[in-house]
Design brief:
The protein contains 2 helices and 5 strands; from the N terminus they run βααββββ. By secondary structure, the chain is an alpha+beta fold. It has one domain. It has a 5-stranded mixed beta sheet. Strand 3 and strand 4 form a beta hairpin. It starts with a strand and ends with a strand.
Length: about 110
């Protein structure tokens, strides 16, 4: 299960993604998190992926939590790296190769 705790911020990010042509990268990241929340890491645990706002622009934090124990199995962020057209974004993330759009960081 994917539980969004900041629907307004997500809506704004999706709209921004449409505007700059990076909508698919955010949707892909959300699909991955939804899968992690539903698959329970191979069916061993029932899990929920919680998505929260992050301090970086257009970015989010997440945790995949065991529903029975309440423990986080995986935490990270959906980090916005800017538009492919050279938008400068200070997201406090390091990447080996320049990238655009949203990427999952753990």
């Amino acid at each position: 299960m994917l539980q969004i705790h900041c629907p307004e911020r997500l809506s704004e990010a999706l709209q921004h993604g449409r505007t700059i042509g990076e909508y698919p990268s955010l949707k892909k990241a959300l699909r991955h998190l939804s899968h992690w929340g539903e698959s329970g890491f191979g069916g061993r645990h029932k899990t929920t992926c919680h998505v929260y706002p992050d301090f970086a622009p257009h970015s989010f934090q997440f945790s995949v939590t065991d529903n029975e124990k309440g423990q986080a199995h995986l935490v990270g962020g959906i980090i916005y790296h800017g538009a492919s057209k050279g938008e400068e974004v200070n997201n406090f993330s390091c990447v080996l190769e320049p990238t655009a759009g949203w990427r999952i960081h753990t």
